[in-house]
Each structure stands twice: as structure tokens, then as C-alpha cells.
Amino acid sequence: MRFGILRFPGTWSDVDCHHAVNGVLGQDAEYVWHKDVSLDGFDCIILPGGFSYGDYLRPGAMARFSPVMDSLYGFAEAGGTVIGICNGFQILCESGLLPGALRANRQLEYRCQWTTLRVERNDSRFTSACNAGQRLQVPISHGEGNYYADAETLDMLEREGRVLFHYCDAVGQATDAANPNGSANNIAGIVNEAGNVLGMMPHPERSCEELLGSADGALIFRSIIESASFDKLRTSRAGLTH
Fold first, then answer.
1. Are 88 and 52 spatial neighbours (Cβ–Cβ below 8 Å)?
2. Catalytic, out of 94, 120, 144, 205
3. Residue 142 known to be catalytic
4. Would you say 152 and 101 are in contact if contact means Cβ atoms under 8 Å apart?
5. Average pLDDT over the chain, rounded to an integer
């Protein structure tokens, strides 16, 4: 599988993402500069964490206008897999590829800590290697990770199963105490209507090896890889029947 890792001025989790998918999981990975206009040949695009354009105006607001974003719209519209992590999630919301917005943490302070995520479903291309209800240990590192959407949007996301991850406690309860930033409904990650674009605030690339304290984040990337392999096999078999 071939991953494209977008780089904006101020991106700084790009190397971590490259190490996770290439160094740990053995997949092809290539950096893509924000001024590039082609995403041809990639199976998955990663928008890493960081401070794109220094988070001027607000996180993701300026990156949304980078030349590569036009290509990302087309890539997502064609069904390509996209995962935005932390600042990447903020960019996806600013660009309209995902609903809602990320606001300042309710504590009004930067939070860098381990969190527990509850996997809500395992029939998505981002969670197929997990079990529904499984708890993952994945760290956060952000100052503006407080997910917000109006009540109607929140109801729609929950009703349609588009919330893939909720912050929870050790026994899987989505309590206020387990919510590290004040996100509505304890939301940690959502997908678009088609299910091919994921935005999440926690950093799975920083929990792909036990040496780092958890390898649970690798399950998210393994899900992407396995889903892509299944799609290619299905396409190949369909071609043989015609």
C-alpha cells in the first residue's frame, strides 16, 4: 500500500507518521508538499498533526487554501482513504470534508497525555482490525481539540454511526472525567458520510510500538491496510468475471 503524507509549513508529526506506516508496518510512504497538485498513485493520504501555517487565524484555516487541497477534494470524492490526525482533523473540518469544528480545550491549556478510546464499530476501513467496544490507548497532544457541532449534527453523527471513537474510562464508559478536552459527546474521531475520510484528535502514529507505551494505534493503520488489500482483491476478482 502507498501512503502520501501531506506536509504544510508548520507540520511536525509527518516523520512520526512515516515511521509508523513505513518503519513499523512496512508500507510504502512518501511526503507530499502542500504546493504539489497531484495525489496520483496513492492509496491513502495522511494529514499529520502540527501547527500548519503557525495556526494563524485558527488551526487549519490557512492550510485549507493550499494548492494540494483541490487534489485532496478529488481524491476523497473518488473514494480514496483519508485520515487527518490532530491538526489534520482541524484542516478537514475547516475544508468542509468533515462537519463541526475544533475549539480551545475547555481547560484553556495544552494537553499532552494518554487517553482511552472506545471503538464504536469495526465495519469501517479504519477499525476493521479492532473489535467493537475495544478500548485503545492512544495519546493526545493539542490545545484546540475540543470538538464542537450543533445538536442536530451531533445527533446525525451518532445516529449514522459516524463517530468511530469516543473518549472513555478504563471500563469503557464515556464519562466527563475521561474527556480530556471537553469535546461534545466525548467525541474523539468521526468519519464522513461515505466512510472514507476520518478525522481524529488522538495520535495513533505515536502508539504503534510497545516501546512507546502502547501499540494500539497500529490497529488503525492495519485496518486501513487490510481494507485496501480487500478492495484490490475484490476489484481483481470482479475483473476476472467479466
1. no
2. 205
3. no
4. no
5. 94
- For 114-166, give the DSSP string: EEEEEE--SSSTTTTTS-TT-EEEEEEEESS-EEE--HHHHHHHHHTT-EEEE
Q: What is the pLDDT of residues 198-217, one digit of tens each?
A: 999 999 999 999 999 999 99
- Residue range 126-140: mean pLDDT, rounded: 98
| CA distances for 214 relative to 64, 95, 129, 204, angstroms | 32, 32, 16, 10
Contact 221, 209 (CB under 8 A): no
Burial of residue 26, with CB atoms counted within 10 A of its CB: 0-12 exposed, 13-18 middle, 19 or more buried:
exposed
The residues near 238 (Cβ < 8 Å, ≥ 6 apart) are: none
Q: Which of 103, 119, 92 is nearest to 204 (CA)?
A: 119
Residue 236 has pLDDT above 50, yes or no: no
DSSP assignment of 86-112 equals THHHHHHHHTTSSSSEEE--TTSS-EE
What is the spatial distance between Cα 227 and Cα 154, in angstroms, rounded to a whole number?
27
Catalytic residue check, 203: yes
Select which of 17, 18, 34, 86 is catalytic: 86
Please give the angle made by the CA atoms of 76, 127 and 13, to the nearest 5 degrees: 65
| Cβ(29)–Cβ(3) below 8 Å | yes
Nearest residue to 227 (alpha-carbon basis) of 130, 117, 84 = 130
Q: Is residue 19 among the annotated active site residues?
A: no
